[in-house]
Amino acid sequence: MKWKTVVGIILIIASILAMYFWETKFKDEINMTEVLVPIKDISAGDAVLISNLKILKINPEAKLDNALTQKDAEMLNGKIAKTALCKNQQLLGSYFLNNTDVIPKGYEYFVIPNDWIFSKSNRIGVKDLASFYAMPDKIYLGSFRIDSINEKNIEVIAKLEDYFTLYDCTRNMGKLLIVMEDDV
Predict the structure, then answer these.
(1) Which of 13, 27, 78, 173 has the highest CB neighbour count under 10 A?
(2) What percent of the chain shows pLDDT beyond 90?
(3) What is the pLDDT of residue 37?
């Protein structure tokens, strides 16, 4: 009868230890998923460093679609935050810009309306460098990075004085011819 008591006590202690280890160690490993989060608030326009990120374990039902994980941390190093990010917020790739996507200091986005445009190359795409000419005399006005193109206008990245040069040329000389930089 004594050995049954000893075995019962051992089983009770073993079950208590198993429950303790389940709750403290193994439950999170099995039931939780890892996401990448900032360790502090990050302002819009700030560069992100790997040292500013950590892995947080969360319930899989709370995970956002396409949330970044530990394998994505290296990809974020040096990228620029598009929006303000809060401490422990799940991160998505759409929250960041490459350094090359950021407007250099002193440059702005400017809209070139469709009525200013004489003609534009069909090959011009977003992020391309395009040359601008005043027509009909074909006076070179400069090369500008195209930010967006639609049916009504083109957005370029230029300095303020460059934009006024384009504006003055369209008022005084005519319309703009826009061609790819490598077509010239």
Answers:
(1) 173
(2) 14
(3) 92
3-class secondary structure per residue, the chain: CHHHHHHHHHHHHHHHHHHHHHHHHHHHHHHCEEEEEECCCECCCCECCHHHEEEEEECHHHCCCCECCHHHHHHHCCCEECCCECCCCCCEHHHEECHHHCCCCCEEEEEEEHHHEEEECCCCCCCCEEEEEECCCCEEEEEEEEEEECCCEEEEEEEHHHHHHHHHHHHHCCCEEEEEHHHC
Residue where the block lists tokens 């999170």: 28
CA angle in degrees (0–180, nearest 5) for 105-52-43: 40
**Per-residue three-class SS string for 25-42:** HHHHHHHCEEEEEECCCE
